[in-house]
């Protein structure tokens, strides 16, 4: 069956969301590799390190695991239109799965603030693609008004079925580790759905007796888009502190994340941390992941940059088993990579103090 070849639907007993899972809209998502990262381990001061590469999904990001679930539900319920606001990856994934499902889709994205690779995917898969002169948070507000007036199924990350699909990388990790789990999983934080989805996956496995423990789940944000980090510092996560978001890691350029309460709960329940990293730290970590022959988009690289900080001050021990969740493929934002290696990405201020680390990573061009 096609659904047995999907890394999401082969766990269908744990995804009780469709009347007939055989009707699922699938592109054979999931089944992504868990890769050893020996040089990144060394750079972070760890004895070993693994990366779960969700960028190896059909549209190149972790969003596919959620979209196969949510588009299947949308089709089963008879919707003709789906829509999302996005920093790029959600729209690419939604457009592909909507096309497979035979549904129309509307994408709202902040003009000039998403990577070309992602914009081109939404167009290629046939989405009605609107660039608005605002940021991601503004797109979310406009879309909330649109869906009030039209029968459109909303596919932003508040959609519960997306979270069901996005919990499956946790199941795959446990499966590959023979039903042990890592000590620690580190994810980038944008709209903050992914950490809650993975937390849910790990908690459900423990509840069912498939595994014995739940890993700590930590969230890393770009310092220029750090509402969760700020909230944890100022109110221990009791209130959200929206920020004006600005980072070259455009996927996580989000100032007012929807799922912050769920994220705080997962941090508290699993004993995870929230960290922030600078533009230079992101760029260095991304180049190190690239040098490993693996590669990822900038937003994914915050995980390695954050791990370095957690190891440095003893919050993670070098002997622990850590998995980084790489959320997007390196080809999503090739402009960023080229600018970095040409030496044009970081301003003098951003690079200050990191020059000696950046120089050896930049290839001669
Ligand atoms: N990494 C990548 C590559 C992303 O595209 C996103 C989010 C995240 C990390 C953050 O995940 O939102 O669950 O905390 N991208 C969304 C989008 C917002 O529209 O594509 P999160």
Automatic annotation (TrEMBL):
Gene Ontology MF, one: threonine synthase activity
The protein's name in its UniProt record: Threonine synthase
Organism the protein comes from: Acidisarcina polymorpha
Cofactor: pyridoxal 5'-phosphate
UniProt enzyme class: lyase
Keyword Lyase: yes
EC number: 4.2.3.1
Family classification: Belongs to the threonine synthase family.
Swiss-Prot/TrEMBL keywords: Lyase, Pyridoxal phosphate
Residue numbers carrying N6-(pyridoxal phosphate)lysine: 63
Gene Ontology terms: biological process: isoleucine biosynthetic process; L-serine catabolic process; L-threonine catabolic process; threonine biosynthetic process
Residue span relative to the full protein: 99 to 463 of 482
Ranges of residues in domain Tryptophan synthase beta chain-like PALP: 25-328
């Amino acid at each position: 069956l096609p659904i047995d070849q999907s890394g999401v639907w082969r766990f269908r007993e744990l995804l009780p969301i469709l009347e007939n899972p055989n009707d699922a809209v699938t592109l054979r998502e999931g089944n992504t590799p868990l890769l050893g990262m020996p040089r990144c381990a060394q750079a972070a001061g760890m004895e070993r390190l693994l990366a779960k590469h969700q960028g190896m999904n059909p549209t190149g990001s972790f969003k596919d695991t959620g979209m196969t679930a949510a588009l299947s539900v949308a089709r089963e319920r008879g919707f003709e239109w789906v829509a999302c606001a996005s920093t790029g990856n959600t729209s690419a994934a939604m457009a592909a799965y909507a096309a497979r499902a035979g549904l129309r889709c509307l994408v709202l994205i902040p003009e000039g603030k998403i990577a070309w690779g992602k914009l081109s995917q939404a167009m290629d898969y046939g989405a009605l693609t609107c660039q608005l002169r605002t940021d991601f948070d503004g797109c979310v507000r406009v879309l909330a008004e649109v869906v009030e007036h039209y029968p459109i199924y909303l596919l932003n990350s508040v959609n519960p079925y997306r979270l069901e699909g996005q919990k499956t990388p946790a199941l795959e990790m446990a499966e590959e580790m023979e039903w042990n789990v890592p000590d620690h999983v580190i994810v980038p934080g944008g709209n903050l759905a992914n950490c809650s989805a993975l937390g849910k996956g790990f908690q459900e496995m423990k509840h069912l007796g498939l595994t014995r423990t739940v890993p700590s789940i930590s969230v890393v944000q770009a310092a220029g888009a750090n509402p969760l980090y700020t909230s944890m510092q100022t109110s221990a996560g009791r209130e959200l502190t929206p920020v004006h978001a600005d980072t070259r890691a455009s996927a996580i350029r989000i100032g007012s994340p929807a799922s912050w309460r769920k994220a705080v709960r997962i941090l508290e329940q699993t004993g995870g941390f929230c960290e922030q990293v600078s533009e230079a730290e992101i760029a260095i970590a991304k180049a190190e992941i690239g040098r490993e022959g693996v590669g990822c988009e900038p937003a994914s690289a915050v995980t390695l940059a954050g791990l370095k900080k957690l190891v440095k001050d003893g919050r993670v021990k070098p002997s622990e088993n850590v998995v980084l969740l790489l959320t997007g493929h390196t080809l999503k934002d090739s402009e960023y990579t080229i600018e970095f290696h040409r030496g044009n990405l970081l301003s003098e201020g951003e690079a200050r103090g990191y020059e000696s680390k950046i120089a050896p990573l930049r290839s001669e061009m």
